[in-house]
Specification:
Elements (H helix, E strand, L loop, with lengths): L3 H22 L1 H9 L16 E6 L7 H9 L8 E7 L6 H7 L3 E4 L10 H14 L6 E4 L5 E2 L3 H10 L4 E8 L6 H25 L9 E4 H7 L9 H11 L4 E11 L5 H16 L17 H13 L2 H27 L4 H29 L1 H4 L3 H27 L19 H4 L4
Parallel strand pairs: 1-2, 1-4, 2-3, 6-8
Antiparallel strand pairs: 4-7, 5-8, 6-7
Helix pairs in contact: 1-12, 2-7, 7-13, 7-15, 10-15, 12-13, 13-15
């Protein structure tokens, strides 16, 4: 016979222990709540100019590149100080002629084996081409083909770089946040990483989180690393890891916007989540050693920065796994109690409700806090705010499903498929700089 009273005691005790341990590790979240209210200082305007290579991997993206071409053509930054490079795989790609017709440059890849199809390899080949042809740039600015940016984006990034920052990214905004619950959920997730993770790392450690696009990196950083070595499924995570361990001076700069399209497809979002989760967990050791050590902060703050980076997801994962495990155990014990020990069925039913409400409330609070903190920037419609808040737990739960999917189907961790972009821009601010 099952000792139901002991089972209840164990459930409560184990969850309490995990909860206390989570609170002890969650100091960064607590600090982040207060730090998020502090402003990032404006970089002083500089009369010196950076020679940027704007790199845009754009295989089969002819349907959307008109927007970013126009956004770059109206930049306030002097045109002679930046070159726009589209990276494609064939002259047969319509992107080739569109780029040339708009005074942009094109790099055509020639190393196209199945294991080299990722964005990281595209960047690697293009930067290697610069070196082989003796083309000199001060910094590389990375965008995706569906991006657009404020007209002063390059100008303000130049101000940041001239102030001594080696890697920087602006505020990631969105072209289609009000499309459906998936685009809004994805936007809120990125906004949370903007407003809390990246901002806090900048204020505490002179670091930030690079999430895909919108950033620049000094060319000498890449040279010191031995070229663009970040070629996995999540090259942005690999690059962030390298910067963290080599103490590179990074900055999240929310005073200028770039805009990104979010996928309205569940299948696409799920595939992304698998890549993100497993990309964060693997391949990290490769980027810890080698290269040149920089000195953005002193040794003590650098150690604290690495510790935060390594443990940043631990409190979240601990409490979610504990709550999910307790919920599943309560459901099983409830079913057994109905059959063998009815006196305890109400107690287990209460546990089910409590654990489910706890999980749901964590995600809802995170969504509400993020939306409130960035309400004027997100421009979400009132009805989409309601939908987003109510569905956000299901959006984030897919990250847990993605972990399990990658665990039991390992090939999904290595499967890369291009994301189809519509090029449709719904945000009024982004429309002003699009075609």
């Amino acid at each position: 016979m099952i000792d139901y009273e002991l089972a209840i005691y164990l459930l409560d005790s184990l969850f309490s222990v995990v909860f206390v341990a989570m609170l002890g590790l969650a100091w960064f979240y607590v600090a982040g709540f207060f730090l998020s209210m502090k402003r990032i200082k404006k970089a002083p305007h500089s009369d010196k100019f950076t020679k940027f290579a704007v790199l845009i991997p754009a295989r089969n993206e002819s349907g959307v590149i008109g927007n970013i071409i126009h956004a770059l053509s109206v930049q306030t930054y002097p045109r002679e100080y930046f070159d726009v490079w589209f990276i494609i795989e064939s002259k047969d790609d319509p992107t080739y002629q569109i780029a040339l017709d708009n005074n942009c440059k094109v790099f055509i890849r020639d190393q196209l084996t199945d294991d080299r199809r990722t964005k990281g390899f595209a960047l690697q080949e293009c930067i290697r081409y610069f070196k082989n042809t003796n083309q000199k740039y001060d910094a590389y600015m990375i965008f995706d083909a569906d991006n657009v940016m404020d007209i002063d984006y390059l100008e303000k990034m130049n101000d940041v770089r001239q102030s001594g920052v080696e890697v920087a990214v602006g505020y990631r905004n969105f072209t289609n946040i009000n499309r459906n619950w998936l685009t809004s959920g994805s936007a809120i997730l990125f906004t949370y990483m903007n407003s809390f993770t990246s901002k806090n790392r900048t204020l505490l450690f002179k670091k930030c989180l690079i999430a895909g696009t919108g950033y620049y990196v000094n060319a000498d950083i890449i040279d010191e690393a031995g070229g663009w070595i970040f070629t996995g499924m999540t090259e942005d995570t690999e690059f962030t890891t390298y910067c963290e361990y080599h103490n590179i001076n990074m900055l999240y700069y929310p005073l200028v916007n770039f805009y990104d399209e979010q996928s309205p497809s569940y299948r696409t979002n799920h595939a992304q989540h698998i890549r993100w989760v497993w990309g964060f967990m693997i391949r990290r050791k490769r980027f810890i050693k080698g290269g040149v050590m920089h000195h953005a902060t002193g040794k003590g703050r650098h150690r604290a920065s690495i510790l935060e980076y390594r443990l940043s997801l631990v409190p979240f994962v601990m409490i979610i796994v504990a709550a999910l495990s307790a919920l599943v155990a309560s459901i099983v014990l409830y079913a057994l109690s109905l059959r063998f020990g009815r006196d305890y069925s109400v107690a287990f039913l209460i546990h089910i409700i409590v654990y489910a409400a706890f999980l749901y409330s964590i995600f809802i609070i995170a969504a509400i806090a993020t939306i409130c903190h960035n309400y004027n920037r997100l421009k979400m419609k009132w009805w989409m705010i309601i939908i987003c808040v109510l569905t956000y737990p299901f959006f984030l739960n897919d990250i847990i499903i993605a972990f399990l999917h990658g665990l039991f189907v390992p090939k999904t961790r290595k499967t890369w498929k291009p994301i189809k972009h519509s090029g449709k821009i719904e945000d009024q601010r982004a429309r002003k700089v699009s075609k």
